[in-house]
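TASK: fixed-backbone design
INPUT:
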């Protein structure tokens, strides 16, 4: 997969999350919103590689679902710290998103949790995906 593939996946998973929320499938909406962030982080990593390709499987540390580890691999920790310091809203959004994990697919989520996760990811001014798009 390459950077463009991950960019497209991020946007597709976000659409999935929005459709699931609209149809009261809150657990799925929460999971897909987090998965969109994972894909955006992987696009950011791929942007740093030869011809934007995602690294081969032997780069095991990159084949994770852990958002904090992906953030580190993307080299965005310093930028994140700065962005969080500049905006309390973004800081709160990142705090909500960073705890997502692939295990969320097994967890029950409420309407509020799903709605809050989607807001944290999609807010046009302070959202996590908006911030990641500047780096992918």
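OUTPUT:
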């Amino acid at each position: 997969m390459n950077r463009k593939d991950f960019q497209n996946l991020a946007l597709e998973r976000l659409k999935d999350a929005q459709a699931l929320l609209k149809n009261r499938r809150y657990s799925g909406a929460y999971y897909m919103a987090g998965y969109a962030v994972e894909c955006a982080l992987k696009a950011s990593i791929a942007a740093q590689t030869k011809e934007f390709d995602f690294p081969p499987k032997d780069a095991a540390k990159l084949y994770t679902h852990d958002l904090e580890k992906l953030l580190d691999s993307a080299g965005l920790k310093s930028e994140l710290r700065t962005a969080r310091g500049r905006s309390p809203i973004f800081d709160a959004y990142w705090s909500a998103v960073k705890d997502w994990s692939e295990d969320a697919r097994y967890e029950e989520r409420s309407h509020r949790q799903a709605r809050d996760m989607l807001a944290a990811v999609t807010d046009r001014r302070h959202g996590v995906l908006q911030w990641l798009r500047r780096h992918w």
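COMMENT: The mean pLDDT is 91.
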